[in-house]
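A note from the maintainers: we've had questions about how concatenated examples are separated. There is no special marker in the raw files; a new sequence line simply starts the next protein. For clarity in this README we add a label.
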Amino acid sequence: MKTSKGWRLRTKDFSKAFIFFNENGQIHQRPVGKFNKQEEKASFIYTPGIYFTNDQLIDNQYLYLKIQLTFALPGKPKFEYLSDANNRFYTQYYNIEDLKQLFPDQIYLGACGIIFITFLVVYLNIHKLEFLFYALYVLFSIVYLLQDNLLIPGYINFYDSLFGYWSVVISQVLINLFYIAFAVHYLDTKKKHPLLHTSMHIIIGFLTVLVITDFLVFFTGNYVAHSYLLNIQRLVMTLFGIVSMAYLLMVCKDKLAIFVVVGSFIYMVGALGYLFTLNKHLMVLGSSIEIIIFSLGLAYKIKLEYEGRLTLQQEVMSKEINVLRAQMNPHFVFNALSSIQHLILQNNRKAALSYLSKFSKLARNVLESSREAIVSLTEEIDLLRSYLELESLRFDNAFSYSIVVDESLETDIIEVPLMLLQPFAENAIIHGLVGKKKGKKCLCIRIQKMGNFCIIEIEDNGIGRIPYISVNKEQNRTSCGMKITQRRLKMLHDSEENKNTLEIVDKFDSKGNPAGTKVIIKLYNP
C-alpha cells in the first residue's frame, strides 16, 4: 500500500453509496454511488472505482461503505483495490476480451437500429400503426438489452442519472406494451379474434398503470416496491404469453399468427434464460431471432395486402371494362340495324339479306367473346374484318379497305381488349370517308411489331376531323365508341407494367388542307 499514494477501490457500481474515510483524525463521508457520484464514468465496461489515499484509511486499514440498492444484487459483491496509475488500463483502454464482450452488443445495435429506422419510415409513408408499434418495440429492446453498453455520445451520463436509469429499467415493460399493441394491429384481433382482442387491451391497460405506478414508487425511494412491481410484470407477461400462444395455435388458422407464436416463443426462451442464468446474450440472441421473424411477418403481411389490393383492382377494372363494353356494343348494334332498315326501305332486298347474314355472323362472334374482356389479336382482326365487310355493303362499296399484319407478329398470343379497333374504324368511315366528295376513299389498317410494342395504325384519306367538327360544332357530337375506347386504354395503362398509348394525328396535304386522320395505338407486348 505504501508504494503508491493513490488507490482505487474496485467494486460494483452501486446505485447510491457513500464512503467513510479518515481525514485529520476525523471520520468524513463523500458520495460514490451511481446516482450521486462525483466522478464521471469513462469506460462502457468498468467503473472508475472509488479513489482513496493511504492516510484516508480508518485505523490505517479500513474503509467503510454505506450502500442503498435499487435492485437485488446477483450474488455477493466483490471488492479489490488497485493503484490509481494501473487503474487507467481498465478505464482508458479496451483489451481483446473487452472488445469480445462489446462486439455482440454493437452488432445488435446496428442491426436493430436499421430495422427501427426502416419501419418508422414505412409508418410515416403508409400510416399503419403496426409499423409504428413495431419500431418502438425494437427501440426499447435496444435500450433495455444494451443498457450501459449503448455506444451513443452522452448516453453513459444519462444512464447514470436517476431518471436515465429508471427509463432504461422500465423499458422492459415498454417492450411488452408495444409488442402487445403491435400484435393487436398485426393480427387484426378486433375483427378476427375478439376474445384475444379484449384480453390484449386489458394487458395494455395493466402495463400502462404499472409504468405510472412504478414511476411514483421509484422516485419516492421505495425501491423494494419497484422491484416487486417488475417481478409481477414478468410473471403476468409470462403467463399471458403462454396462454396467448396456445390460443393462437389451437384457434387461429391465419399464417400471420405463426410468425407471432414462433417469435414470441423464442423471445420468451431467451428472456427466461437471462433471468435464470444472468447471461444477457441469451436474451439478445432470442430478441434478434424474434425481430427477424417479426420483420418477415410484416413483409408477408405487406405482400398479402398488396396481392389483395391488386386482385380487387383487377376485379374492379374487369367489371368497369364490361360495363363500358356493354355501352359500346348496343351503339354498334343500333348502327348495324339502322343500316339494314335503310336497305329495306330502299327495297334493296338482296343487299339487306347479305348485310343481315354478315351482321348475324359478327353478332355471333361478339357474343361468343362477350364473356372475356380480353381476346387474342387474331379474334380482334376477324371481328374487325367482319365489321368492315358490313360497312362496305352498307355504303355500296363506296370505299376500299385493307388490313395488313406484320408476319413476325404472333397474333394468337397477343391479347387486346375486345372490340378495341372497331370504334376507330367506324369514325374513319362515318366521319372521314363518307363525307368525302372527290377521289378515292381508302381505309388502311396496319399492325406491326416494334420492339416491345404492337403498333396499330388506322389511317384514312377522308375529310379529317377539323371539317367534321366545324360542321357539327352546334351539336358538339363526339363518338361514344371513341370515348369508351379511350377510357378502356386508360384503365389498361394504369395497370401494372402496362404502357399503352393512344395518339390521333390530323393529316394535311401540301396546301395545308385536311387530308385524313391517322390513329396510332401502342400496345405494350413484352
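[label: protein 2]
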Amino acid sequence: MPTLICDCNKTMPLDPEALGRALDEKLTLHSTLCRREAGAFQQAVKTGADVVVACTQEKRLFGELGQQTEGALSPIRFVNIRETGGWSKDAKSAMPKLAALLAAARLPEPEPVATVTYKSAGRLLLIGPLEEAERFAAVVGDALDVTIFSRGGSGAQERKYPVMGGRIESLTGWLGAFQLAWSQDNPIDLDLCTRCNACVAACPEQAIGLDYQVDLQACKSHRACVKVCDVAGAIDFTREPVAHSDSFDLVLDLRRQPAFLQHAPPQGYFHLPPGQENGPKALDVVIKLRELVGEFEKPKFFAYKQKLCAHSRNEQVGCSACIDICSAEAISSDKSRQQVKVNASLCVGCGACTTVCPTGAMTYSYPRANEQGAKIRTLLSTYEKAGGAAPILLLHSQERGQVLVEELGRAARVGAAEGVPANVIPIAVWHIASIGIEVWLTAVAQGASHVALLATGEEAPQYLDALRLQMEVAQSILEGLGYEGSHFSLLQSRSGADLDQDLRLLARRRGATPKVRARHAVSAEKRTTAELTLDHLFEQAPKQPESIALPAGAPFGSVTVDKDKCTLCMSCVGACPASALQDNQLAPQLRLVEKNCVQCGLCEKTCPEKAITLEPRLLLTPERKQPRVLNEAKPYACIRCGKPFGTLKAIESMLGKLAGHSMFQGAALDRLKMCGDCRVIDIYSSENETRIHDV
C-alpha cells in the first residue's frame, strides 16, 4: 500500500526514514505533492493498491486529479498529520505518533452496516407568528411545499401558503414521518376567511388580531364580527372543536418553547426561538431545509441482543441504563416482553447506550467494537515500534472535536499555541460516548498511559455524568491493582486555546501500564473483552488483592444474601439474566458465579423476602469464575414417600402461613408436606374426598 507524505512546503520536520521503518515501507518525502509533485500521486494511483495520502486539506483536489488520471484504479485514503502533530511545537519528536496515524490509515475499511432510510417529499410545517413564518416560507417556498400553523402575529395580504390555526395537541415523528395532531377550536375558519379585516374593525373589544383568531378571554359575546362576516360565513361561535391530523416531512418551529424537549431532537426538526430567526443559525437552518428533499440513508448504529438484556424479567424492571441515558428518547421499555425497544429513526448514533449497558446486549455497530479495537491496537503498537513512550489517546468527535484539533494545529503553526503534544494521539470517533470502560482498559493493557475524552459542549449532560462514573470505576480497578498515576480524564474544551491548555496539562499525566503488553483483540462481546483485559491486568499487576471495592453503579460485583430471610425459593435464579445466580439440582443451594454478575438489580427487586443486596466490587481470586454457595438448607422429605421436594425452611414457612386457613385443616394440611406426586395420590385415595361422579 503506497504511502505519500508531504511536509507542506517544508513547514513540517518529517523524517521519512523513521516513518518508513515503523511502516516497513520506503517513503519519499514530498514538499508540494498537491502541486509540482502531483506526478508522484498519479503514479501511485495507477498501481491498483490502496493509496494513503498524508493530507486532508487538498482531499478534493486529489480526488479530481485521480479522476483525470488515465488508468487510475486505486482507492485513496487521507490522513491528517499536519494539524495533529506536524505543526506542533514539539513536532520533531512526534514521528512515533505520525507513524501511528499513518499505520491506522492503512487498516481495511469497516465492514458495511445496516442502514435506516428516510424519505422526504419536502412537505414543510412552519409553526410560529404569522409574519415570521411567511418570511421563512418566502425563502424556502420554491423548493418546499409549505404549510403554516399560525401562532399569533399578522400576515401579508396575499395568501400564498395554506394557513392553519388552533391548538396543537401533539407533534411526533422524524424526517419524512412527522405527525401533527391539532384541534380547530377557534370560531374563525381560516380556510373560509378572506382577510377582509371587517371582523377586526367591528370587534368592540379588539379581541381579533391580524392572525384572524379570536381571543375568547377578551371577547364579550357582542357577535358584531359574525354579522359583518355574514357573506363569507367564516365565523361560527357554536362550532365544536374539530380534531385534525396531518403528515409532514420537515418542521421549522419558531416558538420560544420547542415541541421536542430532549437534547437530541428528531432529524428533520429545527427550532429557531425568538432572537435567533435573523442570526447565522437561521441561514444554516434554511440551507439544511432546502437540502432535505429526497431519499436519505444513515447507518443503523446499534445492535441489540435480547437474550443478554438485563432490563426486565417477569415484568420486574432491573437495568434501565440505556433508557435513562438516551438523549434522543429513542429507547423505551417493553417489560412485558422482557426487552427494550429502539426506534432506529430517532437514534442519532451517540452510542451512550452501548457504553452504559452492563451486559453487552446493546452494542455499537458504526464502527463495530472489534474494528475500533483494531485501530487502537495498531496506533499503540506502531507508536511503540517507532520508539514512542507513554502514549495518550485523545478521543474526540468527528465534528466539533475535529474542528478544535485542527484549529489548535493551525494556531500552533503561527506561534499562537503549542499544538497537540507529541505523545497525544487524536482519534476521531462518531461520538465520544460510543466507547466505554472495556475499550479504555484494553487500551491501557496495550500500553496507553492515559485515555482522554474531549467534550465540546455538543454532548447531553447525562453523557458526561455516565462517562465520569465509568472513568471512576476504571480508575478504581487500576488503582486497586497497583497501577500508579491518572489513567482517564474528561476534557471540556470550548475553543482551540482551551484545548491547548488542557493538552499541556494532559501530556504530563502518565499512568503506569503493564510491562507485558496485551495482544488480544477487542471482541464483539463486551463482557468477553472485559474479562480478557482484567485477566491480563491482574497477571501483570504490581498488587494482587483478593478484591477491589467499586463505586455504586459499577457493572461488576457480588450478591449478599440474608440467610435468616432467604427461603431458597429461587425466584432470583429465574430473574437473573446473566446466569450469575444458579441453583443446584442435587441439593437446596443458591449459588453465584460472580464473573457473570452485572449488578442489574433484578434479583434484589424480585426477591419476595427482600433478602438480597448488591455489592459492587471486583473479585480477583479464582473463586470469581466458580459457583459459590450463598445459601443452603436442609431438604424437606415427603412424609409419604420420603423424597426431598423442598427446603425445611420454606415448607415450615408455608405451613405457618396456611395453618390457620379453613382450606388447610387436617388431611389437607398434611398434603402440604407431600411431594407433588404423593399429593395427587392421597387426594384420589382418600375416602373423605368428594368425587365428580358422586355429585
